[in-house]
Amino acid sequence: FVSGTARAEEVTTSANTEDRVWSGGAEANANITSGNTDIESLGASVNVDYKPKPWSIGLKGGFMRNTTDDVERAKTVNAQLRAGANVTNNVDFFAMGTFLNNRFQGIDEQW
């Protein structure tokens, strides 16, 4: 049995977080077991935000795969892109696109 997770995030020492233009994080994980049944689960995700005022752009993505005795039992891929503009303190306009692939749930490609 082996299991592990790794994460990374931006750490800032600035007291004013409003001045940050870039932010984001990443994560990877693995869970592997062997014995009568071999099971392997792998996953990863990432998110990045770029916010030069008044604009904002965000990108997120993820991947997960599970196998049992070398037979793929689950696989998911997803992504999201969001772009926006801050018009006033209370009004934001944005456009967003997403992608999802999970054939084990009957979703070949969803845009």
**What is the helix fraction of residues, given as a range?**
under 10%
Strand content: over 45%
The arrangement of helices and strands along the chain is: EEEEEEE
Whole-Å distance between the termini? 37 Å
Stretches where pLDDT is under 50 for at least 5 consecutive residues are none
What is the radius of gyration?
19 Å
Task: Describe what you observe in this structure.
There is one protein chain. The chain has 111 residues and is an all-beta fold. Helix content is 0%, strand content 69%. It contains no helices and seven strands. A seven-stranded antiparallel β-sheet has the order 1-2-3-4-5-6-7, with no helix packed on it. The chain is elongated. The two termini are 37 Å apart. The model has no long low-confidence stretch (mean pLDDT 87).
